[in-house]
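Hello Y.,

Per our agreement to keep a running log of every chain we model this quarter, I'm adding this entry. I've kept the format consistent with earlier entries: sequence first, then predicted structure.
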Amino acid sequence: MSSAGTSTKIETFIQTANLLSRMNRSQPGARESRTLYYRMLADYYNNIHRARQEGKLIAAHTVFFPTEVLYAMDIVPMHMETTTWLSAFLLKEQSELLAKGSELGLAPEICSPHRGVAGMFALQEIPKPDVILWSNLICDNTAKSGELLMELTGSPGYFLDNPFQDSPGELDYLIGELKEMVTFLEEVSGKKMNWEKLSEIIERTNKEIDLYREINELRKAVPSPMNISGYLELISADYLFPGQVQAIEYLTKLRDELKSSILNKEGAVTNERFRLMNLFIPPLHLLGSLVNIFDEQGAVSVAEPMFTRWSDGKLDPSKPLRSVAQKSFLIPERRSMYGPLKGPAIPDIVESAEQYQVDGAIYWAFMGCRHTCAAIKVIKEALNEIDVPMLTIDCDIIDPTVNSEDEVREQLMQFFEMLEDR
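Predicted structure for the entry above:
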């Protein structure tokens, strides 16, 4: 492995996140929570950077893997998809990773974050993990990527089989899967599970989820106090730091800032004209441009039910492993992307449109996410029934060759004109 290359990539993440944190802190009127957010990112990759010298194991894992277990065992998590996202969002260096993924035979139709992950390991851009962890939550791309990562790294791995629906029997099945995974990690790491620490993490996770729900309630205000980039921060806070002190600090600060904005009748944009619901994730490499377009047009993202609307429920710290399993049934993405649409998914989307007084919806049709794209027609029909128009934009989360900034701007401007004429 090229130690220089590995060190450079992780160090670049740290340096960039620290720089953005300092820049945000120096801007008049900037959100302090955003400063904390970038500091969180720096801390996350610092943990990976220091893992070897501190004698800790690194676990590379796919999205929605229960990293609470890793934190409780003092194993350092390395979130694969988010690391690829940040290569696009922070560094604009995703093209080389995707090209290398293509060389490995990964077709363009495969989820680009997973193609980018394969490229990272093939190019030895990030540390070789001690273990690979993956699951079938949320999609078949995720289910298969772990096998490829084991092949590329030579690391041992564990596949966590998540049941499809929510029932007592399926919950018990998942708990059994988690028990086997803990045994596997104990054998690989030589460490025993710290059940008391896991209980403490679950207690903080309850607080974290409550903060997400409180923040969502505040976003119903008119004018809305959060712009389109805010919800991507919300997503990655839980992806990287579930049940951790840093996430609680960030979410608490964000909640307090939103309360202050509402009290002072300050919206995220100067003149709120369009309240939008965003479905799926916009192109991260265009996020800065999207923020500018939304600001210019007085548009705000007030709801993202596929990613920020947590199900009702409370976790029990006295039953930590059961709580880890239960949390996987509470996350918004499972409800909207890993279950029957006619169940909670469509009603949630419709209810969000009504509760947040949505003028229109934008579906970011990520070509690599086949199962969510298959739901577009059903969702559009459901929103039409309550007179909420939906714009579908074909795109890719990180691949800049799929569509340009000008193309996206033109589609958005036409949509805004249509909303204005209604």
